[in-house]
Structure formats: C-alpha cells, structure tokens
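User: I would dearly like some help making sense of a protein record. I have put the entry right below:
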Amino acid sequence: MKITFLGVGEACDPLFPNTSILLATGNENNHYREILLDCGFTTPHLYFKACSDPEQLDALWISHFHGDHFFGIPLLVIRFWEMGRRKPLFVLGQKGVEDIFRQTLDLAYPGFAKRLQFPLEFVEMEPGAPLDKLGLRWQTAENVHSQRSLSLRIDDQEKSLFYSGDGRPTAETLALAAGCDLMIHEAFRREDETAGHGSIRSCLEFARQAGVANLALVHIQRDERRQVKEDMITLKEQKGINVFLPEPGDQFVI
C-alpha cells in the first residue's frame, strides 16, 4: 500500500489543506486500485496536481457529512467530466451518501449530473457488515463526533490501513483498528479532549491498545500544530510505535 497525504489540516486551517488521503494498492498479482479517503473544500486541486489520469481513481470514501470532508465532490466530478472520464466511480459511505452526493453536486452545478458520461456507483456501508469490493476488504465502525462519522479499515491481501475520519475513539473503532499496519487518526488537540474529537494523548493510548506499528497524526487544530511539531522528538520515542506528523504531499509505504 502506498499512502499519499494530500491534505492533513482541519476545516479552518489556512496553511494546511483539509485532511484527505490517497491510497494506492496492488501488484503484479492483484489489480492496481486507487482510493480517495474524504474530499473536502481543498482536495480536488491537490488530487489533480498529483494525478492527471481521469481514469485512475477507482473509489471515493466519505467518512461523514461535514464540508471539509465532502464539499470537494462537485469540483472532483466536473473535472473528471471535463477530462473525458468513462470509467465508473464507486462512492462509499454511510446510509444517505447517495442523496448527499447528488444534492451537493446539484447545488454547485444544477442539472449537471445528467451530463456525466461515467457512471456513479453508490455503496452504503454500516458497522458490522464487511464488504468485499475492488479486491479489498472494507469494514467500518462508528466513532464519537458531532455528526455521525465512520472510521474505516481497508485490507488488501497483505497490508491494512485504518482511517479515523473525525471523532474520538470508541471500543468499536479499537476493535476495528487492531493490528493494522498504519493508523491515520485525527488528533485535534495535544492534551485536552474537544467534544467530538480526539487528542494526541488519547490517540497514542489508542494506538498502543490496538497494537499498531505506525501512527500518523492529522487534523490538528491550526494554532496547536506548531507546538505539536516541536513535540515530535518526544513523540517519536514512543515504544513500539512509529509516530509521525505528515505534511501535505508526503508519502508512506506499508
């Protein structure tokens, strides 16, 4: 698996784009797949800067319906149309994802959905119902956020990725994350919990309990990120866990 951190910031961060993850998986014995995890305000330009092939993206995952996680949908879709995409795009998320997707597209570009020359294939996912799609195993669990938000685990034949979306960990997300090769978790604050969000302290404990080897901290409150960067020397000394603070454009291979 190759992970590209297109964006790592929270909704209002003027310096760091919205958190969005590009996952590429596959090898000679398995079909190459590319998955985009969340698509906020700032995501589409970053995606197309990284990828000029309109057919390359296989699927889009939406963790929840806050703007910094899905308001990039209209630009993503219209750019694919402009580039002549024909390949179906799978859109996965919780119940209601199709209605929200279509409403958002129609609000930005009324009636434009009828002009699309590629199919949109919507797949609703709920906790406790694993899905096999695109040669991958998809599983979800609900975390604690101001709006219903689902964490996601993706397994290929060799490696596994956990992506929190937004929200504090739960017993269910802990079970989902257990033994993953890479955990990407939002950590809005350094120490204190914010309602509906995780903290670096809670994420470190969560990663220890889950037994993960690598922890990427994202979606950090913009005024605290500088201090967190200064803390990284200490954070990297966590026993048994490779803790890191990705920058936009960084890649990580597992």
Remarks:
- The longest strand covers residues 20-27.
- The longest helix spans residues 97-108.
- The radius of gyration is 17 Å.
